[in-house]
Amino acid sequence: MNKIRIVIADDERPARAFLKAILQNFEDAELVGEAENGAEAIDLIKQLKPDLALLDLQMPEVSGLEVVKFLRKNQMPLVVFVTAYDEYAIQAFEVNAVDYLLKPIERARLRETLNRVHERLEQGDFRETENRRVKKAVEVYEDATRHEFLERIPVKKREDILLVPVADVASIVADGELLHITTRKNEKFVINFRLKDLESRLEPDKFIRLSRGALANVEMIERINPMPGGTYLVNLKNGQEIASSRLQSRILRERLLKL
Q1: Closest Cα partner for 186 from 165, 170, 163?
Q2: What CATH number is associated with residue 161?
Q3: For residue 86, what pLDDT is reported?
Q4: Can you give the pLDDT at residue 70?
Q5: What pLDDT does residue 87 have?
Q6: Average pLDDT by stretches of 10, the chain with 259 residues
Q7: What is the pLDDT of residue 60?
Q8: CATH number of 36's domain
Q9: Residue 191 CB neighbour total at 10 angstroms
Q10: Of the candidates 24, 146, 140, 125, which has an alpha carbon nearest to the alpha carbon of residue 92?
Q11: Do 133 and 168 belong together in one domain?
């Protein structure tokens, strides 16, 4: 039996280490690459052409869902999404015959997944079929969760709780466990929340990652200045300037800077 060439992507090192440890128990599995974010996963998949990609559903900067959007059909490996329980994701994956693993991953469940991978690999040119399945699943998932997006963010101001409309938010910048929210009128608020978790509650078409620790409202971007090394300095309409990371600059170019 041929070995399955596998790439894994998860932004949490312990999760990657746990998955690698399980894979090492299977003689028919060969880990050929690991990524700590979605942008790295895209590069690895294009470069290594693995049989299988195990993608964490929620990663900062570029999620597992977005990884598959950036792959052409002739680049698409078999894809298995790794996620905490998410009824919308599970429904989308099951309807479109896309495999998934729930955290914490069980050895027996991963074994079942690898058995199915062997069956699909024997079908010859699987990439086009997988591309269609996975991208349809992403579309179904995003449609199902659209109504779940936040419209207001509760913030504290002295003893009061204010509801800040998401449309008024210009940027969200992480500082450890705190998020600094700045509005279009330059009002500033601080909440205790993870950027990764808040991003998943915001409409992806309305906000864009500029770096691992910064989100910007697309409607608030006024000017983008190229910087050395292929990065950008993003100027917002409220006067803020936020530097984009090298990884995220590529996504910025794809989303906003191409006609």
Answers
A1: 170
A2: 2.40.50.1020
A3: 79
A4: 87
A5: 83
A6: 92 93 94 92 94 90 86 91 85 88 92 93 83 90 79 87 94 93 96 88 90 95 92 96 90 82
A7: 74
A8: 3.40.50.2300
A9: 16
A10: 140
A11: no
Q: Please, is 220 exposed, middle or buried when counting C-beta atoms within 10 Å of its C-beta (0-12, 13-18, 19+)?
A: buried
| Helix ranges restricted to H, 96-163 | 107-121, 127-145
- The verdict on 108 and 227 lying in the same domain is no
Give dist(CA 10, CA 36) in Å, integer. Answer: 5
Q: How many domains does the chain have?
A: 2
Residue pair 50/77 in contact (Cβ under 8 Å)? The answer is yes
- pLDDT for 259 equals 67
Residues in the chain: 259
Q: Please indicate, yes or no, whether the overall pTM of this predicted structure exceeds 0.85.
A: no
Phi-psi region of 257 (alpha: psi -120 to 50; beta: other; left: phi over 0): alpha
| CA 214 – CA 172 distance, rounded (Å) | 6
What local confidence, expressed as pLDDT, does residue 213 receive?
93
C-alpha distances (whole Å) from 181 to each of 32, 67, 165 are: 40, 27, 11
DSSP letter string, 21-83 = HHHTT-TTEEEEEEESSHHHHHHHHHHH--SEEEEES--SSS-HHHHHHTS-TTT--EEEEEE
Residues 24, 140, single domain; the answer is yes
The whole domain housing 238 covers 152-256
Distances 227 to 40, 152, 251 between C-alpha atoms, Å: 21, 34, 15
147, 165, 187 - which closes a domain: 147
